[in-house]
Amino acid sequence: MTKPSANDQSLPELLAPAGNWESLKAAVENGADAVYLGGKTFSARSYAANFDDEYMKRAVEYAHLRGVKIYVTVNILLDDDELKQAAEYVRFLYNTGVDAVIVQDIGLLKVIKSLFPDLEVHASTQMTIHNLEGVKALEQMGADRVVLARELSIDEIRFMAGQAKIGLEVFVHGALCFCYSGQCLMSSLIGGRSGNRGKCAQPCRLKFSVESDGRMTVARNMHVLSPKDLNMIEHLPDLIKIRQIKSLKVEGRMKRPEYVAVVVGAYRRALDLFKESPKNYRIKEEEIRKLKQIFNRGFTTGYYYSRPGKAMMSYESGKNRGLLIGKVLGHGGKGYARIKLYGDLNKGDGIEVWTKKGTNTGTVVEFMEIKGKQAEKASRSDVVDIRIKGGIEKGDLVYKTSNIKQLLEARKTYETEIPRRLVGINMEAEFIPGRPMKLKITDFDGNEVTVCSKTKVEKAVKRPLTQKDIRSKLDRLGSTPFFLNELKVKLVDDPILPFSELNETRREAVNKLMEKRILSFKRPEVSERDYKDRLSQFIVPRGKQVSAVKPLLAVRVDSVEMAERAYNSGADEVYFGGEAFFRKPFSIDDYRKAVNIAGKLNKKIFFVFPRITTNERMEKIKKELTDLIKLNPDGFLAGNLGVLNVLKQKAVTCIADFSLNMFNHVSGTVLKEFRVKRVTLSPELRLSQIKETVSGLPGMETEVIVHGLLPMMVTKHCIIESVESGDNPEKCRGICKQCKTYVLRDRMNKTFPLWTDQDCHTHIMNCVELMTLEELPGIIDTGITSIRIEGRQGKPDDLEQAIKAYRTVLDKGYEGLNRPLVQDFIEKMKNRGYTKGHFKRGVE
Q1: How far apart are the C-alpha atoms of 23 and 320, rounded to whole Å?
Q2: 71-89 mean pLDDT
């Protein structure tokens, strides 16, 4: 039974997931200090059951009665039409009394802080905050907490915590995204289901092959993008000692309530163990075993201590593997497998056989025999015959994927009518003949109520009330969320009061205390007039007209030679630098040469920084920036909030890259405060959404990417090194730099290039290029002021032809589409295969 008072300030909070009502109860009853959950809209786990408005109110009341906080996820990207709806939903949450909202969209962050300044806002891990400067940027925006990227090490977090002014939150258990959260377009580009919109189809859990030089298969049909599950329970002291970490987060809003119960219970016991005796902190093997049994793809500590390489990945399966329970000895008859057990097995357990063919097959054990006799349970070393389908062979390993006993025990923790999660209360009872009984109750949070009995206390003729009588009645707290911590009783002149009256007075006082606890979390409502006035500044009138202008043509390149060819082919501007793929990092001399070429041709040039900028890389950038500014470029292209914050301090012109996920005009106004003159809109927007966003940003330049290979993922994991060697991840052999071409091949036979940058991040590129020449007139009609061609790693002649084709259509309009140069290029792209992106269809 857990009996917390207010959250223990000596420990970070334990933050648990809840995808439905049962999971909420499981989290609370097993010791969570706070629970995060989503509503029916605007949530990044839209496939979970989630909470409608009525259940949201119930959830907040249920949690607050038990001293638990509720954080609601409003953590997807929002277009301009949705901002008003999202604001209205946050208003409902504000009035309901939720403790915080979790957001991804920086535009929504600004709206919330304007409408409800006293509502806590937590920056989601989807914001990709992976450096100290990013934390500082969010401090300026008004965020109250940052959920850090899961790619950060303990040392990096410690460094950031030393200077952060707002709370930090880190993950401790559950599924890991392969890509930096918020930077993944794989689900979107493959199937139109966007992770940034809560619809991720998890293609990373599928099988892929890795090929080199177009012929050699390095890894065949493996789950090379599927990480193991994070498990930090044995290492919690390392995180607890970083005082700026305010919250330890368990992932799992899509998981069953039994999972929540087991995992949260384990971490609650671990935190309490640390509090009791930090020096003797040690997790028992049985606790680890329980965590493995409830769900695991294998466990890892992620990037907290190293870049684990192959050891971090679950190549064999993207699903729960459970615990190894036995091995197939052969067939025990038609439809049966004969299995030698390594542990206990019960009727109702789930098992899965990992076949040598890779076509794993599973079942729930409904019937098994031992030596020809039907059995309900079996033990270690028993040989059992179990009915199971599939191509099972001798030697196949058998895993227990669910344990019926564990599931039943987990359910008991939250299905019982008598709660386990209790809040302490103190009572003072006064009995004076001739007066009503007076009962005062105070909870550990300072809420207090006083109630008097309906009838007066009398002087006893025979047997007066005793301390024992009174305690036995007042301590009947039953299904309430309270336990009696202390009772003080004042008895004067042999009092007597009917037990029924004593019980009724207790019930009334407890009910009033529950009401007071719920009301204590309510906030004064924002007036309708103030709300509408504040909201109006963020709303773009529907159908607001924009004037189409001839956009600039910007081209991103990764060599001085290609910069010159881009200018000569018709580019107005060049973006130069950033990630160095298959080459040495860009030097000051490279930047100087590029600037000189731009100057001679009277063209503009913008320097680029990598979109993933580690704290170490950021320090290098700060040192280089003075020399780069002296070269007098026209500005800088920045791909994350941290870089923008550094550039803001230098008072230089900035362009925000697509990786900042600009989905609405309010996000653009936020970035304007960072001296951003141009925003690159999200490649997931359709034309109508682009037009709405542009109409809300008068005087600000807007850009879309219209051509080239788009990055689907950027990951800290080195796929190439892991599949080529893998056993010694700390010793990189630089295989990716050896001029080989590596690709992923999926089940549809599509190939996705793998590019590795100077900081050993792997970029998974789309299988085909984006090409929008035929849609370009419609794109221009949105009012966009710049279009971009992504030209890195392209063949020089192909890139030159692409630039000339887009230049022709920009200059000639619809007529330009019929020019031979353009038609030839379109035909060439059709033969190669291309995508038109999301301009027409948008994303789910």
Answers
A1: 19
A2: 96
Per-residue three-class SS string for 42-71: CCCCCCCCCECHHHHHHHHHHHHHCCCEEE
CA 837/CA 844 separation, integer angstroms: 13
* CA 634 vs CA 572, 595, 631, 702: distances in Å: 12, 9, 10, 16
Are the C-beta atoms of residues 697 and 784 closer than 8 Å to each other? no
pLDDT of amino acid 6: 43
C-alpha–C-alpha distance, residues 116 and 110, integer Å: 10
* pLDDT (mean) for 84-102: 96
How far apart CA 475 and CA 473 sit, in angstroms, is: 5
SS (H, E, C) 554-576: EEEECCHHHHHHHHHHCCCEEEE
User: Of 195, 208, 183, nearest to 750 (Cα)?
Assistant: 208
Count of CB atoms situated within 10 Å of the CB of 594: 26
Pick from 659, 693, 440: nearest CA to 544: 693
Burial class (CB in 10 A: 0-12, 13-18, 19+), 403: buried
Rounded CA-CA distance 253/108 in Å is 22
Asked if residue 493 has pLDDT above 90, the reply is yes
Write down how long the chain is. 844
pTM of the predicted structure, to 2 decimals? 0.95
Task: Looking at 277-402, list the stretches that DSSP marks H as alpha helix, in order from N- to C-terminal side.
Answer: 285-294
Sheet holding 482-491, edge to edge: 448-456, 436-443, 423-431, 482-491
d(CA 622, CA 627): 10
In degrees and rounded to multiples of 5, residue 835 shows phi and psi of -120, 150
Residue with tokens 């895993």: 399
C-alpha span between 435 and 452 (Å, rounded)? 9
Query: Can you give the C-alpha Rg of the chain in angstroms?
Result: 31
Q: With beta carbons less than 8 A apart as the criterion, state whether 707 and 802 touch.
A: yes
Sorted by sequence, the CB contacts under 8 Å of residue 16 that are 6+ apart come out as 27, 30, 32, 34, 35, 36, 250, 260, 263, 264
Separation CA 279–CA 201 (nearest Å): 44
pLDDT tens digits, one per residue of 276-322: 999 999 999 999 999 999 999 999 999 999 999 999 999 999 999 99
